[in-house]
Amino acid sequence: MINMINKYIAIDLALLFLSLIILWLVDNIIINSGLPYWIGIAIKVVIIIAFGYIIIELIGFGIFSTLSKRKGPGIKEEALAVRNLFRIFAYSILILLVLSYLNINITGFIIGAGFLSVVVGLAAQASLGNFIAGLILFIVRPFRVGDRITLVTWQYGVIAQSYQHERLIPGYEGIVKYIGFFYTTIYNEEGIPTQIPNSIMLQAMIINHNNTKKKIINLTFEVNSKVDFSQLRDKLYDFITLFKGVNISKNNIYIVYIDHNAYRVGVKFIYEGEPYIIKSAILNFIKKFASQDE
Question: pLDDT per residue over 248-289, tens digit each?
């Protein structure tokens, strides 16, 4: 993609340099031939419009080709929208350049364009905010496609569980599937695609679970008071150490509190792997172990 961008930049610079040479040659020819001044201006305007059109369309084609090579939903539509936005901006500058070259007072056009841009900016404030936020996300890259992240933001409230087994982060967790100019698509645990505006992604706290291999596993669960804790701790320790990438000691398996009919056990250790896999395995082991003692 970078090589393609460099190719289009080189072609555009070559065309711009060629247009300047042609304009210089036309100036010399008109001066030496004694043609009327307006003929020279007309020829220069035609050259400026022709080369301006070619350069703008070439850059627009390069933008569309480069952006459409990405993977994700709605890629071509988004690339087309960015190309059209660039064309509107570039052709506006070209028109102002031609009017200025014809010695036409463009002060009124500039004032009108400024007023129009303010009106459009206010009307499309949310869209422009998402677009600018998307550019910042592309540059800063707090997360990439394929990363598992947790999005914590006040705009989308999450109701916490009334009965939790461990610390709960009030956020949305999922796999990043697509980062666009306006929206970021995340697939949640149920595999449902969720599109979040980039302005929200930029403001939110992002927990990127792929930034580190070592993760702290913190798990708590209740056990019937009839279950012997020493035996449970030894068996659970032997079971956890069967997993590769586990750093745990028996002191990391402890009693949190004791009730009349049960007690709560806490387990905390470092694990280099997917937390859900080992958590599910531990809870399944506890369930089988407790049922044997009943």
Answer: 998 999 998 888 888 999 999 998 877 878 888 998 998 888
**Three-class secondary structure of residue 97 per DSSP:** helix
Instruction: Name the residue with tokens 């990127």.
Output: 208
In which residue are the tokens 């690339």 written? 79
Residue 224 is classified by DSSP as E
Domain that holds residue 240: 215-293
The structure tokens listed for 182 are 């306006």
The whole-angstrom distance between residue 180's C-alpha and the CA centroid of its chain comes to 6
pTM above 0.70, yes or no: no
Q: How far is CA 251 from CA 66, 236, 255, 272, in A?
A: 55, 12, 10, 19
Four-residue CA torsion sign, 96, 98, 101, 102: negative
* Residues 26 and 72 reside in one and the same domain: yes
The number of folded domains in the chain is: 3
Domain identity same for 91 and 118: yes
Vertex 139, ends 135 and 145: CA angle to 5°?
Answer: 90
Separation CA 3–CA 5 (nearest Å): 5
CATH number at residue 284: 3.30.70
Q: Is 221 within 8 Å of 206 (Cβ atoms)?
A: no
d(CA 226, CA 234): 16
